[in-house]
Every structure is written in C-alpha cells, then in structure tokens.
Amino acid sequence: MPETDVKLEESWKKALSQEFASAYMQQLKAFLLEEKQSGKSIFPRGPEYFRALDLTPLSNVKVVILGQDPYHGLGQAHGLCFSVQPGVRIPPSLVNIYKEMQSDLGIPPARHGFLESWAKQGVLLLNSVLTVEESRAASHQGKGWERFTDAVIRTVNDECNAVVFMLWGSYAQKKAAFVDASRHLVLKAAHPSPLSAHNGFLGSRHFSKANAYLEAHGRQAVDWALPSDVAGR
C-alpha cells in the first residue's frame, strides 16, 4: 500500500512498519487493487483508509472506540468508526451514542455525525476492517484488515499508558480481550445499535467515566461536545 504507507502519520508508520512489510498486507493491497480495477466502488477513499491513525498519533491516544466495518453507503464512510461525513444522515447507532452523551453529560445531540473533533483530541475511532465494497456489508472481512487492526490495538496497549478502551458489543470485547486492565481502563457495554442499546449501552455513563479516569491520571479530559459547524472540516 505505498500510496497510503508513505503518507501515514509518522509515529504509526514507525510502530507498524513490520505490518506494512508483511505478506498479508501485500496480499490485502493486491486484493484492493484488483477490486478497484474490476470497477467496484470501495469505501472510504484510498487516502482515508488510515484516517483514524492520521488524526490520532500514537502518543496522543487517550480513548479507543472500536467499530467493526465502515459504512457501505455512498458518501458515508471517511475512515473513523461511527462517524459520517458532513451532510449525511446520522446513523442509528450514533443517534444512541448522542442520547447517552446527553444523559451522561448533558450534551445536546449534534445535528451531524462528523466525529473528527474527537479524533483530534486523542479518541482513536478504529474500525476492525478498514474498507468495504459499496452496498455490500462485511464484504472485506477476512482479507487481512483484522490482523492489522489487532496490531494497532496491541501497540496502544503496549506503548501507551492510562488509555480508556470503550468496548461496545461482543465483537469489540473479544477483539480487545488482551488489553491490560491493570494499565488501562476497560469499559464494556452493549453495542449502541437500536437492536441492543437498551441492553446496557444506554445508562453506561462511559463518557463521564472516561473523563474521570483521564483526569485522575493527569490527562486532559475529552470535550465530547461536537462543533456545530463542520462545513470547513
């Protein structure tokens, strides 16, 4: 993946150099090139595959939120889990995330679903799989991305201190099961999807718990309130 490897934020590029040089990543690159050459639309755009890492350098990571796949609708995905581009309808899971933020912190729901301001404050919004074919959910699972994002989580676990891992749903909890809870705060709840949010996500108070932990460890709390104007990105 030379076009993205070269541009990747330097701290991640150094930490993940062995992953990029590995056979599985070369196979993943070949798969993506073949998909594009066959005329398929792949989301997000190539420069945004690693957007979560570019916006949140390794030394800045305070919180990790794990998703599964990028949104597969036109114009939605831009490289951050749960986030959509400005002007796109807010997805149901994010609606529930906003409900919990309002209940927990009194923050009124944003009118957009663009979460870059979180990423710029140190919230790593990482999907397990970083690409998807248009209108085909989970179409790029099992192609190598999961191994790569496991390495990302392992790097945070090993090289950072006092990070909050927000693990929503069984998939995220299994993926990050190796995180050292003696060095980090691991928060678990149901997924914010409408199918499961009432089974423990709503009322979990993860946002206030995260900020209390960060401040107790000498780190700046996250301002979870999103800017009202995202037109300038």
Automatic annotation (TrEMBL):
Swiss-Prot/TrEMBL keywords: Cytoplasm, DNA damage, DNA repair, Hydrolase
One Gene Ontology term from the biological process aspect of the record: base-excision repair, AP site formation via deaminated base removal
Residue ranges annotated for the Uracil-DNA glycosylase-like domain, each copy included: 54-214
Catalytic machinery residues: D69
Catalysis: reaction(s): Hydrolyzes single-stranded DNA or mismatched double-stranded DNA and polynucleotides, releasing free uracil
Domain of life from the UniProt record: Bacteria
Any GO MF annotation of the entry: uracil DNA N-glycosylase activity
InterPro entries for the chain: UDG_fam1 (IPR002043), Ura-DNA_Glyclase_AS (IPR018085), Uracil-DNA_glycosylase-like (IPR005122), Uracil-DNA_glycosylase-like_sf (IPR036895)
Cellular component annotations (GO), alphabetically ordered: cytoplasm
Subcellular location: Cytoplasm
Main subcellular location: cytoplasm
Signal peptide boundaries: none
EC code(s) of this entry: 3.2.2.27
Family to which this protein belongs: Belongs to the uracil-DNA glycosylase (UDG) superfamily. UNG family.
Function: Excises uracil residues from the DNA which can arise as a result of misincorporation of dUMP residues by DNA polymerase or due to deamination of cytosine.
NCBIfam families with a match to the protein in the record: PRK05254.1-1, PRK05254.1-2, PRK05254.1-4, PRK05254.1-5, ung
Name of this chain's protein: Uracil-DNA glycosylase
The organism of origin for this protein: Rhizobium tubonense
